[in-house]
Amino acid sequence: MPHIAQLAPHVADLIAAGEVVERPASVVKELTENAIDAGAHSVTVEIQHGGMTLIRVTDDGCGIAADEAPTAFLRHATSKIRNEYDLEAISTLGFRGEALAAIAAVAEVELLTRRAEDALGTSVALAGGELLGQEEAGCPVGTTLMVRNLFYNTPARLKFMKKDQTEAAACLATVQRQALAHPEVAFKYIRDGKQELLTPGDGQLRSAMYAVLGRDMALGFIPVEGSGEDMTVSGFASLPTCCRGSRSYQFFFVNGRYIKSKTMQAALEQAYANQKMVGKFPGCILQLEVKPNTVDVNVHPTKQEVKFGNERQVFSAVYYAVLSALGGDKSRPAVAVEAPAPERETYQQTTLPLHDATNVPGADWTSSLQAPHPSSRPEGAGLDHSAATHLPRTTASPLSRGPQSSVHPAPPEPPRPAAPTPGAVPEPPQVNAPAPVGAVSGRPISSTPIPPVKPTTPSTPSEPPRSAALTPQPAPDADTPWRIAGELFHTYVIVEQGERALLIDKHAAHERMNFDRMRAEDYLPMSQTLLTPVVVTPGPEEHQLLLDNAGELDRLGFDLSDFGGGSLAVRAVPDYVAVGEIESTLSEIADKLSTTGTTGYRERRDELLHTMACKAAIKGGWRSAQEELEVVARAVLSGAVKYCPHGRPVAIELTKKQLEKQFKRS
Predict the structure, then answer these.
(1) If you placed Cys at 371, which of 399, 534, 584, 648 could pair as Cys (CB 3.0 to 4.6 Å)?
(2) Distance CA 368, CA 373 (A)
(3) Within 13 Å, how many C-alpha atoms sit on residue 506's CB side?
(4) 591 to each of 115, 247, 542, 600, 608, how far by Cα in Å?
(5) pTM summary value
(6) Order of strands, edge to edge, in the sheet holding 492-497?
(7) CA-based angle 639:640:644, to the nearest 5?
(8) So what's the pLDDT on residue 417?
């Protein structure tokens, strides 16, 4: 049995440093928080090579006394608290006294500091936690701390660092959060000699928001104010029409500290219920002011998670403040009038044989279901026809729709149905079938889905509840004929087969069909070049992720490049992505990349294909042609499609016996 021995102080310091200093952004966070606690009015953060070779943070705060400067680098040395009672009401960002000691243990550090009452400042140098020397120095009032060669003595941590651009983006995101939390402080961020962020420090959150998020995005936010029960909520929240494809623009602060709070996040999104598009997330910059003794910030090494004394009060305060702001907003989206598209005289019908599942294995359902054309996007998709004129870069695509023309060839006459077997559900004639609901002037609907009329009450496609009367997944039956009995809410296809009925989620099923085809065929979409590039401004970490994976995105049909100022210029997109959906699609892709960045190529590609397949699939709420519903139903009944790429079932079963039991017929 190995003997128990106490670790050497140096090893213990390295272990402790690993909890506090995870990457260069951790150093930037700790040093900027110290500057704010010191009463600084301006803070400059400068990094080189992603912060691995140099991080320099300069402030004009109160400075440190010469005789106390070396003490600042000892573990648990702090000026923020004095005894255990101070832990009950922490009002500063730092309080543990671990940050400087942890940083000095894994880097080469030089400190320059001077107080206003001192004629000269002091310089302190350390390396690997060891004091190398101290001397007088001429310097301005405040503190400058330089961190060089981070993790030079901990190769185990060094090998896990990402590319310089990725680490620099994380540092920028940290400075941006501090700027939003403290608009009274002017922040400057310099990367490799180039200034990338400057905030005015005028105390106005809107000014900081303009500097951090950019003017275009900031215009989509409305002010939020609310108070009650010893809590105050202030800040900004996005309009329902300006919600994003991810939660990357949700910033929550408690008493000036950036935190990650499930309670505040749930309250925010609940306030937007029935007001935003499905799959979109609101953005916010919300500052919650509470009494220090009602929140515990000493629950996580990074201090980004807190524990509230009353979670319900916090939820209510945020929820009602945001809901009140949304209710008081009187703005309306601008109307863009577009020229009406020419009417199609006929439509192109997919060639579908009899509804006999015995034909399914040989049916080419993976290519017969057409991808929806961008012009058929639902209301609000924001397609700008003037900017969406495309020039094709490639000529082949598994989702290509073929040449478009005003007159399509007449639909082929389907074969005559076979005589029904005893007990089978009779199949209605196919030749003179009535047009699907929504046909105009006796003309049948085009095979391309028609955008739905905006409903008076929004409906959200969701998984039906599971109960004893509903079996989660049907077993395929290749011998029993079937027919489509209708469609519920333009989302769920009703299929009658023998003694059972199936409810099929057409979007989930089509999404799976797209995903399987893309994966099997090493998906190469038709990329279409935009006449006018679209400029998008993602978050700094999303921006770098997309640039780092530009080659992989190019294979998926995107052509993007750095536009400067934290923006990206998108010059080409896959043929199924509308102009109005470019930013949200890239945001979703960046979110996928952030969660699969350390996995293999196949895993990353599958995650990207999930997004591509979803975007190309027919949507719940769209009016679909009968032929499209048949193709989806055939794929499900054949057993080829069982679950969507995210694991949700695509169909549920209801038997005749279960229905009769509900109606007391048995």
Answers:
(1) 399
(2) 15
(3) 30
(4) 45, 9, 7, 16, 10
(5) 0.59
(6) 482-488, 492-497, 500-505, 651-655
(7) 105
(8) 42
